[in-house]
Amino acid sequence: MKLIPLAWVRRLTPALRPLRVAVDGGWLRGSDLDACLGVVHPLLKVQRVMAQVLERRWVADDMLALTLHANGHWQGARPGQHLQLYLEVDGVRLSRSYSLTASNADGRLEIAVQRKDGGRVSALLVERLAVGDTVEIGTVAGALHWPSQAQGVLLLAAGSGITALLGVLREALAQGFSAPVTLLHYVRTPGQRAFVELLEQLQQRYTNVQVHAVFTDPACKAADGTARGRFAAAHLDQLGVTADQVLACGPAGFVERVSAWAQIAGLGEALQFEAFTPPHLPAVQDAHQAVSLRFARSHQQATGDNQRSLLEQAEAEGLRPAFGCRQGICASCTCLLLGGAVRDLRSGAVLREPGQPIRLCVSAPVGDVEIDL
Ligand code: FES
Fold it and tell me: Which fold, 290-371?
């Protein structure tokens, strides 16, 4: 039920401050207040950032763009950053991270969701989320930024990596960036090219922008008869790309390929990248060892091992820790280490400071551990 329009919800938010103070002070429960406020409008909340779906639009065979309108708690974000979206599935709260392809000061924002085989959250968003439905928004993260002083920018996207790069590109062009920009979008088949119309409009409007699709399926011919296959330096030569700054976004394997090329090319800090699938975590070198796991808040204890992440081991014990990316980026799974030590599976660093926040998805126990879960 909606007794007031969404525009009023956004205006009313500052007036909720006394309620927030009462919730922070423990005098009132946020969930009770939210239930009462929900009678007025489902997006009216004491603290939570909620958003309503304004529009659904297919932008590729397997990608749906969602325009959302956030309530007044939304603090805004830079295009190219990614946000956590929360959904409840069969009583389990799930979250996934999506890049912002657009973000406006009036609380309107756009993300794009790629349908994935077996993807629980993407299937729900793509198939069931309707215009008018609400979702909860969590933390915003991501450090990709436009190199505004560059003499030329190369954008390398693979699959849904286009979403983050499209966000930064649109903003840069709107702000008057006029040096050459070349975008190479790697997709398996032509149907997976996303935002084709929008990219064509950008090319027509901004003569400094060149967009090329590169098909990785050997059966698909390149649209311009040039580059084909997985990313290779030869593609840049074929297209005559010159750029002093590079932004790359895609699955871990793609980003690793680009990083290897950038290292040989001596790009150093001129390369910014973001991977949206878990990187290959090096195997733990220590011999397999049984360890004791204590989950303090759940009052549970279990026998685990020093090989797997604490997120996997907690889930195996039936716990439901919050998670998002499962690759150490989004911080959704952050939890306090209360005792013992853990190894960061990405860097190998051992963390043993009691009270230290750790990311469960990339932390494995070094010995017996206690965590605040
Ligand atoms: S789930 Fe994203 S950091 Fe662990």
Answer: Ubiquitin-like (UB roll) (3.10.20)
Q: Ligand 1 centroid vs 86 CA: distance in angstroms?
A: 14
Q: Please name the fold of domain 6-141.
A: Elongation Factor Tu (Ef-tu); domain 3 (2.40.30)
For the stretch 71-105, pLDDT in tens is 999 988 988 888 888 877 666 667 788 999 999 88
Which atom belonging to ligand 1 lies closest to the Cα atom of 330? 2
15-19, 26-30, 56-60, 256-260: segment of lowest average pLDDT: 26-30
For helices 17-24 and 30-37, the axis angle rounded to 10 degrees is 150
Instruction: Tell which one of 326, 335, 344 to mutate to probe ligand 1, the residue whose CB is within 8 A of the most ligand atoms.
Output: 326
- 251 CA → ligand 1 middle, Å: 16
Q: Count CA within 13 A, CB hemisphere, residue 137.
A: 30
What integer is the mean pLDDT of 224-233? 77
Q: What is the pLDDT of residues 174-201, one digit of tens each?
A: 999 999 999 999 999 999 999 999 999 9
Q: Exposed/middle/buried for 330, CB within 10 Å: 0-12, 13-18, 19+? A: buried
Which architecture, in CATH terms, is 153-275?
3-Layer(aba) Sandwich (3.40)
Q: Which residues line ligand 1 (CB under 6 A)?
A: 323-326, 328-333, 359, 361
pTM above 0.70, yes or no: yes
Cα of 324 vs its chain's centroid, Å: 8
